[in-house]
Amino acid sequence: MHQSTFALTLCLLSITVFSTDGYAPNYYCSPSLCPHGGPNVGCNPPPLSGGHFCYGKLPSVVPMTPAVQAHILHLHNYYRSRVASGYQFPLGPAARMYTMVWDDELAAQAGNNARSCVFAHDRCRNTPQFLTSGQNIALLKYYEPGAYTVTDLITRFIGGWWKENKKVKPAYIQAFPRSQVKNIGHFTMLVNDRTWKVGCAMQNWSEGAATKVYFVCNYSYNNIVTQEVYTVGRAGSQCQAGLNPIYPGLCRT
């Protein structure tokens, strides 16, 4: 049995190295990018070697290879498909839930958080395209070298977010309640029908005899208190580009 500590948290607000060609060098430092408060995590981000709290801990960026990206997208779309198709009783099916696709800039912003070696939400992670960006984060601490593959870790992290579905009532989907942010926010971030892009990053470091792995996913939209998480209706009935043939109930993106 793995000796591990698994922790999850949620973003209420509301590297890979990504090129910001076309932006001013201090673009992410502009207050206009974070109307609800900052600073933006892309303003003076940690170096590739890791932030201040990584020092002496042998930090390492886990590459988001095409295969890793594909696995992240598959898990998101598999879980979204279950909900959208109406298989997650008592939650109703979704009239318009998009297939998730990868976004390099969201991933770069996730990396700016992950490289801090601090398990905490950044105050703002918005990009020029996505000014209401959401976030899920997770942390695992374990003591057995090589106990987990990257795929194992991602499956565990995203699966942990998904398990919050057990606490979700249909009324919470109709209007996301402030009182439930910490209980269901990861799950609702996974199935929000205004979200269609995701980008993630992972960082690991040593802490004594243990290894810590920090996983961050940023989304093109966020949970908004009192706003519906998704529109309940006949699965895919409001899809404009048709249904995804691989993930039932999801709209083509």
UniProtKB/TrEMBL annotation:
The keyword Signal applies. One of its GO terms (cellular component) is extracellular region. The keyword RNA-binding does not apply. Residues 67-226 form the SCP domain. Pfam families: CAP. SUPFAM superfamilies: PR-1-like. Transmembrane segments: none annotated. PANTHER family: CYSTEINE-RICH SECRETORY PROTEIN-RELATED. Belongs to the CRISP family. This is SCP domain-containing protein. It comes from Anopheles coluzzii.
